[in-house]
Prior knowledge:
Number of helices of chain C: 6
Strand content of chain C: under 5%
Structural class of chain B: mainly alpha
CATH superfamily of chain C: Cytochrome c oxidase, subunit III, four-helix bundle
Largest sheet of chain B: 2 strands, antiparallel
Strand content of chain B: under 5%
CATH class of the largest domain in chain B: Mainly Alpha
Helix content of chain B: 55-70%
CATH superfamily of the largest domain in chain B: Cytochrome c oxidase-like, subunit I domain
Strand order of the largest sheet of chain B: 2-3
Order of helices and strands of chain C: HHHHHH
Number of strands of chain B: 3
Oligomer: heterotrimer
Shape of chain C: elongated
Shape of chain B: globular
Bound molecules: protoporphyrin IX containing FE, copper (II) ion
Number of domains of chain B: 2
CATH class of chain C: Mainly Alpha
Radius of gyration of chain C: 19 Å
Radius of gyration of chain B: 24 Å
CATH architecture of the largest domain in chain B: Up-down Bundle
CATH topology of the largest domain in chain B: Cytochrome C Oxidase, Chain A
Largest sheet of chain C: none
Number of strands of chain C: 0
Distance between the termini of chain B: 46 Å
Number of helices of chain B: 18
Largest interface: A-B, 92 and 102 residues
Order of helices and strands of chain B: HHHHHHHHHHHHHEHHHHHEE
Amino acid sequence: MSKHLIPAALLWVVLTAIGEATFLLDWLPVVGSPEAEEWDLIFNVLLAMGIPVFTFVVAALVYAFTNFKTSNDGVETGATFKGTGMFPKVWLVATSALVAVAMVIGLVSLSNLQADKSGYGWGEDQAPLVIETTAQRFSWTFSYKDKNVELLSAKDSELLLPIDTEVKFELNSIDVIHSLWIPAFRMKIDAIPGRTTFLTVEPHKLGSFETDENFRVQCAELCGLNHTIMSMHIRVVEQAEFDAWLASKQAKVSR
Amino acid sequence: MYAATTIGGGLGTGLLSFYLGIGVAALLRTMFGYDAWDRDFNATIGYIFGLVGWLMGVGMWGTWGREWFGLKIKDPHANSRKELGWQRYFMFNVDHKVIGIQYLATFLVVFMTAGLMAMIIRLELMGSGQDFISNKTYNTVLGMHGIMMVAVAVAAVVGGLGNYAVPLMIGADDMAFPRMNALSYWLVPPVAVTLLLSPFLGGLETGWTAYPPLSVLTDSAQTFWNVAIITFGLSSILGGLNFVVTVMFMRAPGMTWGRLPMFVWSMFVTAWLALLYTQGFAVALIMVTLDRIAGMGFFDAERGGDPLLYQHVFWFYSHPAVYIMILPGFGIALEVIGHFSRKPLFAYRYAVGAFLGILGLSGVVWAHHMFTAGIPNYLHGPFLVATELISIPTGLIFLSALGTIWMGKLWLRTPMLFALAVIFNFACGGVTGIFLADVPTDIHLQDTYFVVAHFHYTIVGGEIFGLFAGIYYWFPKMTGKMYNEKLAKLHFWWMFIGFNLTFFIMHWPGIEGMNRRIADYPESLQTANLIVSLSAFLLGSSFIVFIYNFINSWVRGPAAEANPWGARTLEWQTSSPPPVENFLTPPVIAGHPYDYGVPGAAPHVTFFPPAVGSPAGGGGGGQ
Amino acid sequence: MAVIAAHGHGVESHGASHMSPEKRLRVNRVGLWLFFFSESIIFGLLFTSRFFLLGTHQEHVDQFLGLVITIVLLASSVTAYTAETAMEKGNRKLAQWALLGTILLGVVFAVGVGFEWSVAEFGLKLSEEHHQEPQNVVFGTVFFTMTGLHAAHVVSGVGMLVLAFIMLSRGHFSKESHWGISSTIMYWHFVDVVWVFYYPALYLVAG
Ligand code: HEM
Ligand SMILES: [Cu+2]
Ligand SMILES: [Cu+2]
């Protein structure tokens, strides 16, 4: 039996090495905030764990496929063990352990995301900058709370966010379900009629749709005819620039 | 023309009753002081009348309905007569073998149609920009592709292969309720027709999930869609009930639970799932329909309703539904792997335990489809844990499959290739499931192409590959002809490569910021989509080989032996195709179905008295 | 749907030709139970939805009327049971009368529900002058749907009872073979049991 186990194990190791080598490539999308950093970390840990699981199956399949095949029309029979011994028990324990690890990773990082256990959303309860967001078919309205500034995805070209400031989006919808997704921050929550959902992000990288297309708000829940175009570009700017922009907007409003 | 009378009769009474229903609805509305005409209301009532009319006209009145009134019925078995030839398949027939083939043929047509729609979708997504179809058309095509494929995944294996093989494999002469079996099938054509008509009735806007409030507000064919899907659900429930009772009561002597072939186990568990959960989809859609046509306010937040109620009820069915889809795939894979490895199935009891574990857990994980839907935060943790727990029984399926091929003598015919591909593909689909089950990673991935890739890996890679394994495996039994092995292998490799290219690459745009159900995307996603589209066309074209081989072999193929695979199970111990009553002498089960090469093992099947003309020994011992 | 299924099991006797009549009966019975099980999930989901949307909140309903129709329905279960036992003893006359009684009680129940609908103080539309707030409207939604679905079952049950009654008076069924009646009566009991859950959920939870 070990005559087969060792080469098969080798195959597994090689395949796993090839799989894990993808970490040499930097292929995940732009990291625009600590939330995205955290996401990348968990994703990579799970990927690092998932690759050997997948390659285990592949190695076993490929090895059996090439070594145990027969062309004698099914006359010959193979070994006769039935898997009633220890092996299935070991397998159960091992897979349970793997699952437990994935669970713990998920639960720990989930608890960081949920300051408010009975709320509906991700992140902190309080933030220095709150943007009241209203979704409707097929546009977004962003209203900077207490700042008297309102942006409309149908009219304004960009949503400005200051760097290194915690921003809380509070979402409502006036018609159907929408979903606010910002790929650069790896954050998403639905906007639902009848309740307020929220998410917080703290952009830590300057950028805009021109530098990377993932700096955008995208509706991620099918909301009807023009769901496709329900998006808006985001620009993360220095605090000073943000303040100036805000002031100019406020001036326009009060005029 | 017997077939023409059946179909024509069904259509005739169906249409008449449809108009009658519309009239009754108009009358009722006027009586209660509403406008006589409301498209959705009147059409719903018309549909219900038309459905009953169709069923009665197609044969239920003569073979069944008359009995409720104490009248004499026609013999429901009359239509099983061989002399009727191909026309048997177009008639109200209670023979499970005929019904199985009816299901299979119907759903292969649906599968190919929905596949063409996928090609349209990929054509639109091939380049960024609005190139080819309007947003409205895109949503309609997407919705139809989604729901038709879901229907295929729910019914093709259960209704088709399950119906054909399960009674044979347990040594029964038919299902427990043959006429109800026929009813389950004849409920399907109106559903298919209604779905196919939806572009002309206003299109679809909500995808296959039909989330309100959109599905309440939309001015499209939604109501028709709802009643069609509820009908389909009824068909699934009755089918599930039939399988549960059949497996419980119709097993041949000696067929203990511990000797049940894996495919039968998977059908049994799947049937329980269908029987337990399908109501969720129906209730959810009934509520949507009531909101639409009766002014109810289940999902209207302004009137105190809650849109999330729908998602809870809907996923309460639709998560178990994914297991309704995958378990038959697992069942076929293990069945085929068992026979084609020429070796006892590894850890049989654990694999059965896995099925039962999945049955138990699948009802408590639904909210993992709602992690970013705005459910209260305290729900995330428990559903994360429950969802990941399911990976443990799922892992046991791999244990059994890999343990069986290890040190076996693999006979790599086409069914075996497809079965091994199920294991390969599902390994990928299962691993990506973990990323979706861990809430923090799911926040970014939900509603992106990563999810699309995940569920195609599990459903197409797991179940549809299993479906084809089963089709090739039972083809000689069903048709009495042998398929062309070279073409079949060509189909396999073509499909396998096309599939894996398409959907493996599809994870990438999902992570990179492409959400699902959109007709257009930012330019940076261009390359990935182009590759995916081209691979998808490769995948799509592979079915041409299949269709050619399927039809050509059925018509012209060489005659098949009773047991071309030298398999031990019951369905191979009778002629190909089997006689109407399945076995000429009653079979008795004496041993385990997978004991290939085990010294001194009893053959799985014996006949008492020994059957004339059945292959000797029932594929026992060393075979 | 219910009609088809219940009667369907009732007459399924041609397919599995090797089945003895006793086994056929047992299989039919299990099939019918599974059907009830499956239906109870539909009722259960609506029941759960009621609490999901409203907690234990309840609008004003006519308690007296509710009590009366509940008693009527429970009484109909007694007459149904009488019909079944009478059939088993071969007492066709008593069975006929008991079936007739069940039918009448069922009709009274259905009329009672219809009356309840017409006097309900909650509607489906928001309206200030009629004091219709969101809470009233959701309760209306839930109340009409739950009682409506249940009443539809009652009505279909009455239809089946009428069929059984007619066939019995025409000389069908016997002491030994009356599955058509038994299945209808089982169905009737099932519909009653559903009401045993629905009545408190709609009339009594708020005390
Ligand atoms: C058993 C075979 C499986 C099938 C057929 C299947 C199918 C599906 C489908 C159809 C969806 C998408 C629903 C939608 O959004 O429209 C989905 C999503 C999901 N699957 Fe699976 N899945 C399977 C296995 C798994 C496994 C093993 C896991 C986890 C361990 C898993 C976890 C998930 C999660 C968490 C989602 C939600 C993702 C999201 O919407 O963001 N699935 N699956
Ligand atoms: Cu939207
Ligand atoms: Cu799920």
